[in-house]
UniProtKB/TrEMBL annotation:
Biological source species: Chlorella ohadii
A Pfam short name: Hydrolase_4
InterPro entries linked: AB_hydrolase_fold, Hydrolase_4
Name assigned to this protein: Serine aminopeptidase S33 domain-containing protein
Serine aminopeptidase S33 domain location: 40-181
């Protein structure tokens, strides 16, 4: 049964921030920051592709949640860049199954974070995923029904179209020929494989969105000036999830850069969690 919605405390408590770590099912040690207001209610923040938990205004979101009396936990996935979290194996562009799924006893990154918070006495009232994390948030909501609220923040939904747009319309032909293509990024080097690429392109996002039960409420939150992932992706997702809301932040880019966009996004997050 889903937990009861969070209620706004009478007054925001002084928040304590501390670093915590936990293991995912692969045995990778993941590091994160708990901003603890003393409230049992916690919001988990999950970053996206080639990012980490200090990006996309996550510290601001954590501060705004704390101001409302809510605790938060943001952590680095195993494939985070510039992170202390451990990685066993290469960086992967897809890897959504390892980051979101639970099959029998296998609880991977998102589900492991939820379980970890519960193990220290917290009640997970909302899970937020940004960009690639937004894909994972939809997957999580479709498969796990015990977190009552989920936020898809500027998430990719039309994965095939978006991936082809990012890497070029001929990328499938090149991968079919070469099987693996080395790539150099500002943060480091990695190898794109045909298997990894197809894992991302072939995700059944519409099917998963439709399977999110009405007991899980989803907010699709996106900036209208996002040139990385068009806000039409969030519009489509919101139209398919049975119990969903769509909010567009006028003029905000993919990472909600700037004080005005960041504050607007964080305000919508807090209002949704407390609604």
């Amino acid at each position: 049964m889903a937990a009861a919605p969070a209620e706004a405390p009478a007054a925001a408590a002084a928040a304590e921030e501390r670093e915590l770590d936990f293991l995912n099912p692969k045995g990778e040690r993941l590091f994160g920051k708990l901003v603890d207001t003393g409230s049992d209610d916690v919001v988990i923040l999950c970053h996206g592709y080639v990012a980490n938990s200090e990006m996309c205004q996550f510290p601001l979101v954590a501060a705004e949640l704390a101001e409302a009396g809510l605790s938060s936990f943001r952590f680095d996935h195993a494939c985070a860049i510039r992170s202390r979290s451990e990685r066993q194996g290469p960086f992967l562009m897809g890897n959504h199954e390892d980051e979101a799924r639970m099959r029998a006893a296998l609880i991977a990154d998102m589900a492991a974070a939820v379980a970890f918070m519960r193990s220290i006495g917290k009640r997970v009232v909302c899970l937020l995923g940004h960009s690639k994390g937004g894909i994972n948030a939809v997957m999580f909501a479709a498969r796990h029904h015990d977190v009552p609220k989920v936020i898809n923040l500027a998430g990719r939904f039309r994965t095939r179209e978006g991936t082809l747009q990012r890497f070029g319309a001929d990328i499938l032909e090149r991968l079919a020929r070469d099987k693996a293509i080395p790539r150099r990024e500002p943060w480091g080097e990695w190898v794109m494989t045909e298997e990894d690429f197809l894992n991302r392109c072939n995700l059944p996002m519409e099917e998963m969105a439709r399977s999110v039960p009405p007991t899980v409420c989803m907010l699709c939150l996106h900036g209208t000036a996002d040139t990385t992932i068009p806000y039409a992706d969030s519009e489509l997702c919101a139209s398919l999830v049975p119990n969903s809301r769509l909010i567009l932040v006028e003029g905000a880019d993919h990472n909600f850069t700037g004080e005005a966009a960041g504050q607007a996004m964080a305000r919508h997050v807090v209002n949704f969690v407390l609604s």
